[in-house]
Amino acid sequence: MARDAGHPALEAMQAARPRSRHAHLAGDVALVAETAGLYRLDDAQAATLAEGLMSGDASTTAALQRLGLDAPPSLPPAADLTRPVRALALTVSQTCNLACTYCYAAGGSFGGPDTRMGWDVARRAIDALIAATPPGGAVKIAFMGGEPAIARDLIRQAVDHARRRAAARAVSVGFSTTTNATLVTAEDAAFLAAHRFAVTVSIDGARAANDRLRPARGGAGSFDRVAQGVAHLARHAGRIALSARVTATPHNLDLAETMTALGAMGFTSVGVSPMIASPTGQGALAAADFETLLAQMMACGEAWMAATLEGGHHPFANLATALTELHRGQPRSHGCGAARDYLALDAAGNYSACHRFVNDDAGAMGSLGNGIDHGRRRSFLAARAVEAQAPCATCWARRLCGGGCHHEVINAGRPACDYVRGWLHYALTAYSRLATARPDWFDGRA
């Protein structure tokens, strides 16, 4: 890709370079970094802030004061950032029928032998989760792998048990699963629909891209089998929240083609996640790939924007998610809920910070036998808080990204920060456009 000054992705990355830790300006939208607050500025006000940003933190603080805005100092991490655990991922199958080239789970087994969760482990974990939830509360249970459909009988048994136990305690329970869809039958889809599952299908594009990146263990392509499983799920569109997750690697960066192909399959929501850390070293994005990825993401964003402004629909989920979070204006200490209110449990009954930390001591959080290690949760969250991350301290985007995925940062550092800032800068400009043309889109999203 040519790196000329007129390239929108390169321009976004350049505009997003940190100039002050206190604020950022994207068109007529000012972001006050520490509070994640957004403010629309007129031309004179934007010029005032732009001038302050050119001279660093002190000048930016002065400019914000002249505009009547605050630039509060960063606070140290709280002593205890944990919340009651209300979401649990059960790694019901630590094996997989695919051989994805970049799999964070090392082929589904997380670096150990192929194994499945036993009923006793699943039952005890569900009982502990619900018992710790007060009446009137809510919990979420996710079934993960490997490929969770390999353990379909356990999933059905676990769902029935969770519903009974939750009802007895006046607790509501929701279910989700992430699957490659190759093993999903019509009967499976009907079961998932009956229990209102949120289903995320891992698929990496149209046939050629998906078959290259997500082959079966024997080497054959998986696309046809995925399509058949998705068709079963799509028949229950009113009762299954169906979405696709695309892992962006150097080999499937034509995201416009991906959106078209997956939309035709029945997906109304398609999210894209960059491959940052690969246990095999294969499939991870190199530095030069991030500009290409940002260009593709922005192009999909423009397609989404055009459809939305016309009252239509486009499946690209990343921009809709970013705009919703910007509108809510809730500053983050972490990139997700891992270890805070969400844990994972492996087949052996060991808790971890999230499903990506299975068999990884860095995210170990206790066991069913000894209980959740709340001390480990507290220390993990304090160490991983964005307030405690030295590279994040000078970044205006810190309270929007929360410091990134814990697993990726621990294993690969932060190679994607320029990309993340460029994407957020674009999202801020899109926010201004949509708020002007379609303010009703944000109704109910605060």
From TrEMBL:
GO terms for molecular function: iron-sulfur cluster binding; metal ion binding; oxidoreductase activity. Keywords: Iron, Iron-sulfur, Metal-binding, S-adenosyl-L-methionine. This is Radical SAM protein. CDD domains: Radical_SAM. Gene3D superfamilies: Aldolase class I. Residues 82-303 form the Radical SAM core domain. InterPro entries: 4Fe4S-binding_SPASM_dom, Aldolase_TIM, rSAM, rSAM_sf, Sulphatase_maturase_rSAM. NCBIfam families: rSAM_more_4Fe4S. The lineage of its organism: Bacteria, Pseudomonadati, Pseudomonadota, Alphaproteobacteria, Hyphomicrobiales. Its cofactor is [4Fe-4S] cluster.
